[in-house]
Write a structure and sequence with these properties.
The protein is mainly β. The protein is 0% helix and 48% strand. The strands form four sheets. Strands 3, 4, 6, 7 and 8 form a five-stranded antiparallel sheet that branches. Strands 11, 12, 14, 15 and 16 form a five-stranded antiparallel sheet that branches.
Length: 202
Amino acid sequence: FSVNISAFAKTKVPDVKSFNEKSATSSSVTLKWDKVKNAKGYRVFMYDKKSGKYKSKGFFSDTEGTVSSLSPAKSYKFRIKAFIKENGKRVYSKNYASLTALTATEKVNNVKVSQKKKTSFVLSWDKTKGADGYIVQRFNIEKDKWYDYKSTEKSSLTIKKEGSYRVIAYREYKGMKIRSAASKSISGKFKYVYSEKGTFTF
């Protein structure tokens, strides 16, 4: 895909810098870039494997944009140019800025509690296609929020604190973890053992 640039343009448009992936879901990626001085907007293109060409995915006036209708756990190639308006026409920067972005996986399913003991239990879940690992989160009642409890590359984890838990799959990319949506939460409790005197221990 080519972008026509007026041969009579008086103003040179700087190239886009720092083109990066900001975040992703299983069906979209949000891209960000540095502001280009005097630019009226930016045009993002995505590589289409069927045609072997880059196709326009839209115009953006801000320094970030979201491309949707993508597939989970896939990589996509993007490139971008800045433009100005001159004599009623778009004048584009000379060179593209390019990157490969990843979508997140589908959310984790079938989270369950098993192997209950006096001071621990096992949290397990189905493996998620495309995941590099999993983040187990625990709900903090006092602060009314979820926080990261532990990470693992396996599909199970021994838990030594009672509470509500959920699991997030992640993909690693350029030092960041691209997270899936969170699984359904589940309550995890230890196995209670009754004492010989007829009382039980919490």
